[in-house]
Amino acid sequence: MGGRVTRVFRNFNVENRARREISKEKPTPAPRHPSARLDAMADSPEIKEDVLRKDDRFLNLLKDVYVESRDPPVRVKDGGSEHLPSKQKEKRLTKLGHLEGLDVKKVPKGKISIVEALTLLNNHKLQPQIWTAEKIAAEYSLELKEVNSLLEFFIPFTVQEFPKETKKAITSHKPKKLT
Asked: Which stretches are annotated as coiled coil (predicted)?
């Protein structure tokens, strides 16, 4: 509501106010201070002569100046080492088998790739007595605690097929029509 009221006052007689403002004579600018006119001084021959003249006394002083530059000794900060790796991390080749083209070739020790994780979870699910947590930890260079957590909390998807009679029971149910 308030926007409508302010818009009415703002737009009231806009054209007449604009014409009045445009038809006003422009104010004359204030006079400049004499020191602000540098281009007038640059045109004078005395200033040009002083600029172009070489002073022998200053040239001799300039020749006596010798500048020697040395870099300060480099100081290594204690806190700066967190950005640089302290040692090169050991990497191992992945054990992918027929899925070799789908994943990375080398991973750091103590880590596994996505394809390796899915493979070891599937192996453990299919043959848990062969693929125990200890064997997986030794095979993939992992810690036993992490492997136990992985096997406990991550389960690969399983495909379940329902018997045909269940499918018929589900499809035979007809929804009610609304009239």
From this structure: none
Which stretch of 35-44, 62-71, 113-122, 137-146 has the lowest confidence by average pLDDT? Answer: 35-44
Domain definitions of the chain by residue range: 37-64, 91-153
Tokens standing for 12?
């009231």
Sign of the torsion angle spanned by Cα atoms 171, 174, 175, 177: positive
Q: How many CA atoms lie within 13 A of 174 on its CB side?
A: 3
pLDDT in tens, 89-137: 666 666 655 555 555 677 788 888 888 888 889 889 989 999 999 999 9
pLDDT of residue 90: 66
CA distance 169 to 13: 78
The C-alpha R_g of the chain, in whole angstroms, comes to: 43
DSSP 140-171: HT--HHHHHHHHHH----------HHHHHHHH
User: What is the pLDDT at residue 130?
Assistant: 92
